[in-house]
């Protein structure tokens, strides 16, 4: 640089060793300088200095760097004080290479810009953010131009509950529950007669059969004939009660082979 910056006490310099004496003479003895070779940082980019130690970082790369060690910028961001600048003099990036502006922004620097420098080499400058890492800043919402901010509506007054009971309330407003029933409601309901017996789904006629099955069985027994076997609707009657329908005429009988005549021993 052509002039020594004011109020600088510590500067980190990354440049070729041949440039170190020139930079030391420009800075003077009042500034503490930390020199690093521009080639050594490719092997080890770690810095021993504590955080927030340096007031400025100056880097000079007269030759194309190729794969730039981005970890160096992270270390410089840690070592620099908040709001202090980093200056990089370098050749123009080749095709397919990221610019130093991109490297600085990705490392966490702000306000990065690139200029022509001295006409031979470009110069990129950026700053360390003045805030701490992970600091939170509240965002204020701006009102639209030409629109007035409408005051918020007042909160509605609390309403009283509709159902309230007071100790002064008398019983004259209460309804007698007996008045809700008339004389017809108080009369006993007639008993419903039981339905006639139905033994169509049982093995034989019930004791008090009234459907005519008892007479039919007595006639068959007297004549020595039996009625035709009922036709199975599901095809599972011969398997047993576990597979028969609720109204199966074979319910209660033992399993049999399909087509076999089923007889019931009533003795």
Distance between the termini: 129 Å
The helix/strand series, from N terminus to C terminus, equals: EHEEHEHEEHH
The total of beta strands comes to 6
Number of helices: 5
* Overall 3D form: elongated
What is the gyration radius calculated from CA atoms? 52 Å
Contiguous runs where pLDDT drops below 50 for at least 5 residues? 1-5
Largest sheet: 6 strands, mixed
Short description:
The protein is α/β, with parallel strands linked by helices and 267 residues long. It is 15% helix and 16% strand.
What would you note in describing this structure?
This protein has helices spanning 20-27, 70-79, 100-107, 183-186, 213-223, and strands spanning 10-15, 32-37, 54-61, 80-90, 110-115, 122-127. It has a 6-stranded mixed beta sheet with strand order 2-1-3-4-6-5, sandwiched between helices. It has 5 helices and 6 strands. The chain is elongated and about 140 Å long. It is an alpha/beta fold. The longest helix has 11 residues, at 213-223.
């Amino acid at each position: 640089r052509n002039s020594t910056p004011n109020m600088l006490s510590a500067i980190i310099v990354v440049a070729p060793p041949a440039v170190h004496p020139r930079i030391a003479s420009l800075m003077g003895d009042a500034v503490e300088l930390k020199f690093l070779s521009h080639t050594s940082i490719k092997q080890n980019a770690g810095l021993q200095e504590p955080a927030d130690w340096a007031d400025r970082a100056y880097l000079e790369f007269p030759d194309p760097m190729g794969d730039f060690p981005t970890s160096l910028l992270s270390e410089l961001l840690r070592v620099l004080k908040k709001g202090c600048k980093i200056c990089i003099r370098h050749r123009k990036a080749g095709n397919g290479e990221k610019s130093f502006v991109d490297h600085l922004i990705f490392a966490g620097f702000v306000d990065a810009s690139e200029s022509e420098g001295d006409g031979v080499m470009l110069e990129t400058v950026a700053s360390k953010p003045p805030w701490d890492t992970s600091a939170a800043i509240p965002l204020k919402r701006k009102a639209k131009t030409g629109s007035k901010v409408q005051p918020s509506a007042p909160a509605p007054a609390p309403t009283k509950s509709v159902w309230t009971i007071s100790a002064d309330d008398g019983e004259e407003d209460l309804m007698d529950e007996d008045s809700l029933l008339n004389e017809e409601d108080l009369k006993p309901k007639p008993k419903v007669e039981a339905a006639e017996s139905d033994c169509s789904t049982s093995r034989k006629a019930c004791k008090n059969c009234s459907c005519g099955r008892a007479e039919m069985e007595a006639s068959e027994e007297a004549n020595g004939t039996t009625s035709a076997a009922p036709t199975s609707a599901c095809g599972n009657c011969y398997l047993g009660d576990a597979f028969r329908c609720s109204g199966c005429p074979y319910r209660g009988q033992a399993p049999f082979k399909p087509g076999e005549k089923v007889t019931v021993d009533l003795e």
